[in-house]
User: Fold this.
Amino acid sequence: MAESEPAWSWPEEKWQSAVAGLRAGRSLKPKKWKGGARALMALGFDCTHEVAALTDGAPTSVRLAEGQYASRQGLPRILRLLKAHGAQATFFYPAVSAMMTPEDVKLVAGAGHEVAACSWIGEDLGLLDHDTAQGLLAGCCDTLERITGARPRGFRATGGALTPALARQLRDNGFIWDASLGADDDPHELLADGEPLGLVEIPHGRTCDDLAYFAAGQPGAPETVFDIFRREMEMAYEEGGVFTLTLHPDLIGKRSRIWILEELLKIARTLPGMRFSTHGELAAACGARGAA
Amino acid sequence: MAESEPAWSWPEEKWQSAVAGLRAGRSLKPKKWKGGARALMALGFDCTHEVAALTDGAPTSVRLAEGQYASRQGLPRILRLLKAHGAQATFFYPAVSAMMTPEDVKLVAGAGHEVAACSWIGEDLGLLDHDTAQGLLAGCCDTLERITGARPRGFRATGGALTPALARQLRDNGFIWDASLGADDDPHELLADGEPLGLVEIPHGRTCDDLAYFAAGQPGAPETVFDIFRREMEMAYEEGGVFTLTLHPDLIGKRSRIWILEELLKIARTLPGMRFSTHGELAAACGARGAA
Amino acid sequence: MAESEPAWSWPEEKWQSAVAGLRAGRSLKPKKWKGGARALMALGFDCTHEVAALTDGAPTSVRLAEGQYASRQGLPRILRLLKAHGAQATFFYPAVSAMMTPEDVKLVAGAGHEVAACSWIGEDLGLLDHDTAQGLLAGCCDTLERITGARPRGFRATGGALTPALARQLRDNGFIWDASLGADDDPHELLADGEPLGLVEIPHGRTCDDLAYFAAGQPGAPETVFDIFRREMEMAYEEGGVFTLTLHPDLIGKRSRIWILEELLKIARTLPGMRFSTHGELAAACGARGAA
Amino acid sequence: MAESEPAWSWPEEKWQSAVAGLRAGRSLKPKKWKGGARALMALGFDCTHEVAALTDGAPTSVRLAEGQYASRQGLPRILRLLKAHGAQATFFYPAVSAMMTPEDVKLVAGAGHEVAACSWIGEDLGLLDHDTAQGLLAGCCDTLERITGARPRGFRATGGALTPALARQLRDNGFIWDASLGADDDPHELLADGEPLGLVEIPHGRTCDDLAYFAAGQPGAPETVFDIFRREMEMAYEEGGVFTLTLHPDLIGKRSRIWILEELLKIARTLPGMRFSTHGELAAACGARGAA
Assistant:
């Protein structure tokens, strides 16, 4: 949507339509959570692993090794912690990443976690034409279903680059939730050009993503990141809302950072009525159509 | 003012005139604040919301969602806090942002806060010719007046890019204060080519703007930002001056950051004689011509 | 490996082979460390000094002076601390850096530390053809052997840019360990196109490298960096693994940072069974072929 | 010195001569400081003010205002603190900056501080031909002498970009010290192509410069910066050396940062034998030729 006309010269319809493409609609936070829960904690793990290095066409050995670290050290540490604290979570896998480490994916699914989709190999699906995107999306779902036995029902766009067309395509492919955008702290409807799409949008904000602090070139302070995540969690709890946290096994899985997740899990368990939830369970609790 | 001649080859008149374009003049801090106040706290909120994403021609869904967060979560949290602490503040709205959320703007004005102008749709008015800028500036004022019932009397330039011509235009349009530049900590005259313009310049420094710490790509530590703002406030209080703080609802409004504003408000109320002030009230206290 | 075809269009063999070039294989962490050690601390110092300024073709006086600081102030402080705490470590020297400060290199070797190779003059050996790389690599080994009396048996690629070809070349030149990649926290086999190379790969992750925090433009907080390194060390100890730390004399050697190393050494000595190890000794403990 | 030939192909003479251009020589730290001092604290203030905005050809009103802040708020705060703690310091003025605020410069000199040179208007003198540089350097010295009554004897190159030719020119113009480079923590000889120049080089490292933390785009944490400066000061004291600190009135002069200087001054006064020194006094204590 690169514009030759500067925005100040646009007629109102033009900026109205630019804004209306995808927009948060009605809140889907229920008046009361099921089963006596007071607030929910929805953990998501982006398992891009080596795929990030492949996608941008510069798979150096350094970056590939950092990707492999995710499966060798990061993922096992995460799974141990989740098990120790009885927490279920959601793991986003590009198909290629799942094909490289199918045993990992089976382990994840076998432990009761949700496996969700994000791409074939890290591509930005919103930039591709419908048929190409359809092929890759279907390939991703087929691959994950073949490995786990269950077809993914949720999605996150690479880099969060969801488009109205892609959102419709997700719905048409049977997805019931998406976790790409950060217009709110709690789940809500997603409107495309003003119409509810029928997808539950689970917030994904940069503040609650370890990538914002620990990506290469952002040597974040673990104590600060913990402080931010803890505050997000505690205010979500006070509000009776959802604390959605996105983590990357290669980033949070480091010896100097994994304690952040452990502390959050410990604190969560001290909060009466705070429940762990997969993204799929959250979507169901928010009344998603077709949710289990 | 890109120069082909290097500055070391300029004659004195040239650098003197480059510097004299806009310059801080006489301090307007009164010897004594009215009503027994010892120092003032002037909060300003930049309500750019989705407009920032539109302006630069790349309105991705991620950035638009971050803009929508400002009105869905950020603004309500801010208004609740201001009400709870009895604080009046100033809200800067581009016209288009106000047109997207007119109920918000009415709520802001109805709660006794000041609504001020900044642009039509985030454009840099100082870069446009006089007539184009006049059209956009008048459009912004008309829009805000239509929604709130009051014509804005104060202004902040997008990116702080005030020019001598734009400053004169502001004065000619009935503005009585501007809050674009950071040449001082306290309000002062604004000189254009050495002549007082009759505008009260209310300082806007990067140190006291959450954008400097929380803008995308600046994952600031909330504890550090609080420490900086607190120190600015406390020294303003010691000096009997003004603590001007600029905040963005999409940035400060996050669950992990809103406490910063709350703590500042709490501390402010413990300081005897510290008073909350809108920018307009501050301009009046500094003897602005035409101020209420 | 810049690709004109986007990764999503690649057949499986293509991404499989891109990933398989160099890959972490079997862990080489022994079930039990020799001599009753419970965990190992392997310190490495990158002695690039002025060479970094020469390599990129912009040897400004500022950058050269920062390089000279490494040998004038950084190295002596480091050697004093290592001696005081009875710690042996590994020092990586480009040949040219060693030729500029041969007395330093003798001092290092004479104190029982290991001297390892990294390049002739900071070049990226993996980008050069076999014969050119061979000449530079041999020149580096010859230079270090002439100064220290011992031929280097370990290597780190500049910028970590190891390639399969370069890894094979290292093995063919008699190297027994490499410390370029960060696929794991503990030593492991290195596979080239699926085949074990016979090199012990000693992990080098950005998290445990002071360059990530203190390089020009990264004005890291010493307290934060200490916190990260300490946590890495303590979890390595808990796991009975290896804490590999990479430091640069020009960065860690500053008056405001050298305490980080001192504190780590002090803490290490309070941990029962934590032993200091050169990289070469570590490779031997991991069963390297041809290790002393 | 952009090179078409990569450094690995250079013959030894080439890199030897690239390194030898300007190099730290013999330490000039005396065995014992005069008058019973145990260590020295040499504060330097870079008074670039609006000149930084002029130099790069983009004097926006925002940047000019930030420059004016230095003289309106930063400098008075600094002078008050130095007076309160009985500390003498050195102030570096480009000629144009001094011409814009001559009363400031007189105040500085009148309070017993040293005024030193750095450029005419922020230009990089090392990039200009000898005669042009001579004209600007002489103009700077003449200007400062006209305002203060004393000819400057010390210099700092803009951006630290000292060259061998410029260093010789400084000596030929009667300068006795330079403070551009950071090859050491304590004063030392400066060698040009191996020959002592007769200038005392007073270290200027990035670690001890507030620009590294507070420059636009580096929103440093005041507590961290204080921690770094304090550690540098304390280790300088332990070593019986010199703590050289470079500050910018527009950066350190902010309400949220000026306390850093105050705390350092307070701590310095608690250290027995720690003495404040101008750069000129320091050069004299190090045996500078022609020093007062």
About this structure: Chains D and A do not touch (no CB pair under 8 Å). The two ends of chain D are 37 Å apart (CA to CA).
